[in-house]
Amino acid sequence: QVQLVESGGGLVQPGGSLTLSCKVSGATNTIYYSGWFRQAPGKEREFVATSKWVGGSTAYADPVKGRFTVSVDNAKNIVYLQMRNLLPDDTAVYYCATRTVLEYEYGSWGQGIQVTVSS
Hints:
7-stranded mixed beta sheet; 55% strand; mainly beta; globular
């Protein structure tokens, strides 16, 4: 099993930057992909970004392309989401998740962390 704990959320002004961290523990040798998702009030959870656990291949949702960067520090087992030029529409609870080679969907999730973009 894999456990995930997010940190780094908070309140930031529009145009500002924030970096989320996700500490991963447990069976990290089984992880194939890590990802970030978010859920805004009254909306469904949506995909934000993903990174292959080893190798660095990444993909992003259109609303965050060019502003967000996902990366994995395999030595520390931490997944980062660097967010720049934040917009009020980025306000949401952000979740990190992992998928193993045996899973078709993300099977392990963190508890979520609030990001609020407001002046």
